[in-house]
Structures are given as structure tokens and as C-alpha cells.
Specification:
The complex is a heterodimer of chains A (about 250) and B (about 270).
Chain A lengths: L3 E12 L2 E13 L4 E5 L6 H8 L7 E6 L2 E2 L8 E3 L11 H5 L1 H5 L4 H11 L18 H13 L5 E5 L7 H18 L2 E6 L2 H7 L2 E5 L6 E6 L14 H16 L4
Parallel strand pairs in A: 3-8, 3-9, 6-7, 7-8
Antiparallel strand pairs in A: 1-2, 1-4, 4-5, 9-10
Helix pairs in contact in A: 7-8
Chain B lengths: L21 H29 L9 H10 L1 H35 L1 H16 L2 H12 L3 H25 L3 H9 L4 H38 L5 H10 L3 H29 L7
Classes of the chains: A alpha/beta (about 250), B mainly alpha (about 270).
Bound molecules: adenosine-5'-diphosphate and magnesium ion.
The site of adenosine-5'-diphosphate (ADP) has 13 residues of chain A, from strand 1, strand 2 and helix 1.
């Protein structure tokens, strides 16, 4: 049984310019411990999909299930890293990182200790008491990611976590996430528009069509782990990349 | 994990707030200071040259003399004015902030009350003030109410704007964590509203002393407003100027105090 299951999700926004259909009977499954990437053109509805899983939006039809339980529209069930880091500027890195524990009324002191212990792993050693304004773009993303990990949910949603970074920083963070990933033991759903990123990180990839989003392709990435960034020169990598590019260009099953 | 060098941060990094060295201070305040000094000299010269009578326009030197000789009297009246200003402003702050939070929470209340609030600001306070004195007598209360009425509006409006202006992504993040209304308010929206609230407070504090003086003018036994009214009746124009000067200085002092408080409370502003 999949840990996270999206069953035939549809969503249409009503705007002053008329209805905007965004998601069209979208179904996905993510198994426990699996890393799944979702690729789609900009504006195809990826963030909307995440908002629905996080309970921030209600779908017009369909259901979100976690471990078989219907959690549609329920909040706080998954850890969510939004597209922009959304760090609170008046809180230190540590206080930002333990925010979910504060909201959910957990043991904040224990969470702070855990956050401090993880700082080094997140490349934030010595920055725990600094406010976000002092951090570089890459460090902000890692702080936001630390906050997501300390949310203590088995399922994590990452919405284009590296989207706003320059190419070099992005590659470094992908490598870093790859190394960290094996130790974290979480289920991940990652939104990206970067094909390389999807192939390097994911066990499986869903490609979405342009709006309204349906699934254009589902692809298993049969590359051995542990992976590293040198993978990009592998012929198997090139094959997968070509296949994904074709589908994304045509917007449909090629 | 080979990105930026993760050096420990220096004790207290000073970003944001500009610290004034005497050089930048001179560059900023030098020109207006020179202009004011020049104008005062011209004023002094013209009064002397044309032998303008003191009840019409006293010379700056005479105003300074009057200021120094009437310091004890001025101190008394200034204290009286402050005992109207501070409670009036405090009342406006408490009521304005409270109403702002309430109007933010209830769209229905907002639709019902907001237009009334705006309309209330179009009624001249000079018309209301005598009514308040009639209604509440010559005690402290009507004067405090006049100050509160004048300073209340910018605080309400900026509180509402600030609360509603909280960053959408940050808000959604907290909602995704399962935050309820009160948690959103406490952890995010009140903090995010602080810069706007301080903008309201700065506007309000600027009006507050003038409001107190106006209220005292209408009916009081002490205060700068009373001092001005008496001086006018006695054709002591120099004292009127002195009172105006003190009112300005008082306003500037309170404004500066609020600005310092703002730097301390909204410490993250301008850091980004
Ligand atoms: N609250 C909303 N109201 C109206 N339209 C929306 C709303 N949220 C998103 N949309 C529209 O839905 C589409 C998909 O948005 P989004 O999910 O953010 O796409 P993506 O994350 O894939 O770039 C866009 O065209 C966007 O304008
Ligand atoms: Mg998006």
C-alpha cells in the first residue's frame, strides 16, 4: 500500500477572467521511503497540487490518502517546503527550524537541541543564532530544508527547493541532498522543472502536461544508489533525459 | 556540503540601521541648519531696520530672551500639556490597536465600522472639542479624549493594513503546519504588522501635542494652549512664538523617542 496516494484530483480556479482548470483527474502514488519527482512546465499546477496535499486548498474532486486514511483538506499531515523559503526574518535559524514544533505544541527544547545537532550536516555550523538576512541564498534554502526535516513528518513535499539559486549553488545543493538523503529515511515528493535534478535525485518521475495538468509520463529511474553528480555523463542518464525532454516538448506522450 | 565557507558569525553583526558619523551628520543636517540660521539673521535684521513693534513680530533674539526668562512658567505649562498628551495618546494606541485587530478579524465588522471611521475623520475636531468640554466638564477627560480622537485613526488604519499585509508564503507555511487563528496572529501577523503600526504611531505622535494644545485652548487652566491664549490676549506675541517653539520641540522629542523604540522593537527591519 502506498504511503501517499492522490486519487483522481481535479481543481479549477474561478477568476474574474473565467474558470481556470488547473488539475485534471490527477492520480499518483508514492511508496514509503520513495523519492518521487514531479516535472511540469511553469504554471502547470505543481504548486497547486502541493497545496492540496498540504491541506491548504481543497480539490473540487478526488482524495488525498496517507497510509490509506483520507486526509483531504487536513493540514499538518505532511512537511512542506514552499517554493520561496518563507523564513521569518525576526527569528534566528534555530527558531525558524523549530517552528513546526512550536505550532504543534511539541517539546520545543528538544527540537532546539536536535536543530543544533543538525546544523553541521546542513552546512549551517555557527549560524544557528543568526537571522536569515545574514544568510546566502543557498544557506537560506538549507535552513528552510532543516525546518522541513524538523517538522517530523514521514512525508516531505519540496516545491522547487533549488529553483531560485544559481546553477553552481544548485548543483552543490543537489549533491548535498543526495548525500543527506540516505540517512534521512523519509518519503519525498519533489517538484522541479529541472530534468537533471529529477533524474539525479528521484527513484521515479511523473511528467505533467501543461495546464490543466494530467500525467504525461511516469518513469522509473533505474540508476544505482548511492548516486553522485558524475552521473550526468552516464549513457543511461542521457537516455532518460532525452525521453523526458521529448515528452516535455510535446506536452503529451511522445 | 562544499558551498560557502561556514565561518562562525561575529558577535553582533551590524547590518541595516545606518549609524551616523559626524561627517554624514554634517552632510545631512548642515545645509538645513545653515538655511535656518540665515533666515533668522534676515528676520532679526528686518525687524531692527523697520523697527517692527514687538506685538506684531518680535525679533528672534527677543524670542530667545523670553524663552529663557519664562522657562519656569513654560515648564509648568509643558508638564500640564504632557499630562494631556501622554494619556490621550496611550488611549488612542490601546483603542486603535484593539479595534484594528478586531476589524481585521471580522470582515463584517470591518465593512460596518470602517466607513464610519473614515467619516469621523472628516468632522473638524474644533467642532467636537467644545461639545466634549460641555459633556465632560473642564477636567482632564475631555482634553485626553480630544488627543485620542485626533491620534486614533492612523493607528487603526495602519494596524489593519499591517495585519493584512503579512507575507502570503509565510502565512501559508504556518497554516500548513496547522496553525490556528491565534497562533497565526501571535507567531506571524502581529510581528509582520509592527512596521506598519509604527508608521501609524509616528503619524499619531506628530498630531498628539498639537491636539493637546488645541484642547487646552478650548478649555483648561494650565498647559501650552492656555499659555498661548493668555499671551495673545496680552499682545505678548513673543510668548506665542515661544509656545510654538516648545510645541515643536516636544513633538520632535516624542517622535525621536518613538523612532528609537521602533529600531529596538522592529530590529529586523532593513536587515534584508
Ligand atoms: N488562488 C488562485 N486563484 C486563481 N488562479 C490560481 C490560483 N493559484 C494558482 N492559480 C493558477 O493556476 C495555475 C497553476 O499555478 P501553480 O500551481 O502555481 O503552477 P506551477 O507551480 O506549476 O508553476 C497558474 O496559471 C496560476 O495562475
Ligand atoms: Mg510553483
Amino acid at each position: 500500500m502506498p504511503t501517499l496516494e492522490l486519487h483522481s484530483i481535479s481543481k479549477t480556479f474561478t477568476t474574474s477572467a473565467g474558470p481556470v482548470p488547473v488539475l485534471d483527474r490527477l492520480s499518483m502514488q508514492v511508496a514509503a521511503g520513495e523519492f518521487v519527482a514531479v516535472i511540469g512546465p511553469s504554471g502547470s499546477g505543481k504548486t497547486t497540487l502541493f497545496n492540496i496535499i498540504a491541506g491548504l486548498e481543497r480539490p473540487d474532486a478526488g482524495a488525498v490518502r496517507i497510509d490509506g486514511v483520507d486526509v483531504t483538506g487536513r493540514r499538518g499531515q505532511v512537511a512542506y517546503m514552499p517554493q520561496r523559503d518563507a523564513l521569518l526574518p525576526w527569528l534566528s535559524v534555530i527558531e525558524n527550524a523549530v517552528l513546526a514544533t512550536v505550532v504543534q505544541g511539541g517539546d520545543v527544547a528538544a527540537a532546539r537541541r536536535e536543530a543544533r545537532a543538525l546544523l553541521a550536516d546542513f552546512g549551517l555550523q555557527g549560524w544557528g543564532d543568526a537571522r536569515p538576512a545574514l544568510l546566502s541564498g543557498g544557506m537560506r534554502q538549507r535552513a528552510a530544508f532543516l525546518r522541513t526535516v524538523l517538522w517530523h513528518r514521514p512525508i516531505m513535499l519540496l516545491d522547487e527547493p533549488f529553483g531560485a539559486l544559481d546553477a553552481l549553488t544548485r548543483a552543490q545543493l543537489q549533491q548535498w541532498l543526495l548525500a543527506l538523503w540516505d540517512r534521512l529515511d523519509r518519503t519525498v515528493l519533489l517538484v522541479t522543472h529541472d530534468i537533471d535534478e529529477a533524474i539525479i535525485l528521484a527513484d521515479r518521475i511523473y511528467v505533467l502536461t501543461p495546464r490543466p495538468a494530467r500525467i504525461a509520463l511516469e518513469l522509473r529511474v533505474e540508476l544505482p544508489r548511492p548516486r553522485s553528480y558524475t552521473l550526468v555523463t552516464d549513457p543511461a542518464f542521457a537516455r532518460l533525459k532525452r525521453q523526458l525532454q521529448q515528452v516535455l516538448m510535446n506536452g503529451e506522450r511522445g | 556540503m562544499s558551498e560557502e565557507v561556514s565561518a562562525p558569525i561575529p558577535a553582533t553583526p551590524s547590518v541595516g540601521h545606518t549609524r551616523l558619523s559626524w561627517r554624514t551628520g554634517l552632510a545631512e543636517y548642515g545645509p538645513p541648519a545653515l538655511l535656518v540660521i540665515g533666515l533668522l539673521l534676515v528676520w532679526e535684521g528686518l525687524v531692527w531696520y523697520w523697527e517692527v513693534p514687538a506685538w506684531l513680530l518680535p525679533a528672534p533674539s527677543q524670542i530667545v530672551t523670553t524663552f529663557v526668562t519664562s522657562l519656569p512658567v513654560l515648564a509648568e505649562h509643558t508638564t500640564a500639556t504632557l499630562t494631556v498628551t501622554i494619556p490621550g495618546f496611550a488611549l488612542a494606541l490601546a483603542a486603535g490597536f484593539g479595534l484594528g485587530v478586531a476589524l481585521d478579524a471580522s470582515p463584517l465588522l470591518r465593512r460596518a465600522i470602517y466607513p464610519l471611521l473614515v467619516t469621523s475623520q472628516t468632522v473638524p475636531i474644533v467642532a467636537i472639542a467644545p461639545l466634549l468640554v460641555v459633556g465632560f466638564g473642564f477636567g482632564l477627560l475631555p482634553k485626553v479624549l480630544v488627543v485620542a480622537l485626533i491620534t486614533f485613526f492612523p493607528i487603526v488604519v495602519n494596524t489593519i493594513d499591517g495585519l493584512q499585509g503579512a507575507d502570503r508564503d509565510q502565512r501559508r507555511l504556518l497554516e500548513a503546519m496547522g496553525a490556528n487563528y491565534w497562533q497565526l496572529l501571535r507567531l506571524l501577523r502581529l510581528r509582520a504588522a509592527l512596521p506598519a503600526i509604527f508608521t501609524g504611531i509616528k503619524v499619531a505622535i506628530t498630531y498628539s501635542v498639537i491636539g493637546a494644545v488645541l484642547a487646552e485652548w478650548i478649555g483648561a487652566s494650565a498647559g501650552l494652549g492656555v499659555y498661548i491664549a493668555r499671551s495673545l490676549r496680552a499682545f505678548r506675541t513673543d510668548q506665542v512664538f515661544v509656545a510654538a517653539l516648545v510645541t515643536s520641540l516636544l513633538t520632535i522629542a516624542l517622535f525621536t523617542l518613538v523612532s528609537l523604540l521602533e529600531r529596538w522593537i522592529v530590529f529586523w527591519k532593513g536587515e534584508r
